[in-house]
Sequence to fold (174 residues):
Amino acid sequence: MEISEQCVVGLTWTIKDTLGEVLDVLDEPVEFLIGGDDLFETIEAALMGHEPGARVQLQLEPEQAFGDFNDQLLFLEPRSLFPKEVEEGFTFDGAALPAGVNPDMPREVLYTVSEIYPEHLVLDGNHPLAGIAIRLDLTVRSVREATEEEIGQGTAGTGFFRIPNTAPGNDLLH
Fold:
């Protein structure tokens, strides 16, 4: 089966920056809905017509991927508002930030603790790959018809390319 609209594709990948530094490797296939909200349009367009076993390589500029770095999403917040055990790399859902943080912080953002000072934390609401051009080396592992439920939800359940998904202490992106 060829990749087309409203199908689910299983992918593995290596993601690098433009200097060739590996940013992420996915060895076990993850499924994405083509024609939904799972992948960037540029990735979907590059995958169209391919079958299992195909290898697709492309480069995405920041505006095609995770956007430009936005310094308006950096916030210096009092250390005392956060748990004592917080470390760099911890993430906080903007909708569940502690009381007392800057009221102007967007609530639909996932914040990563990027720096810790004795009295303050720096919270960064940018995606970890914001402002970076990335090189994708994708391998198509499977292609199947999407279910009615997947089509209705607009996803195969994977939001890697849409929602930041990093865990504390995890330097990979999936």
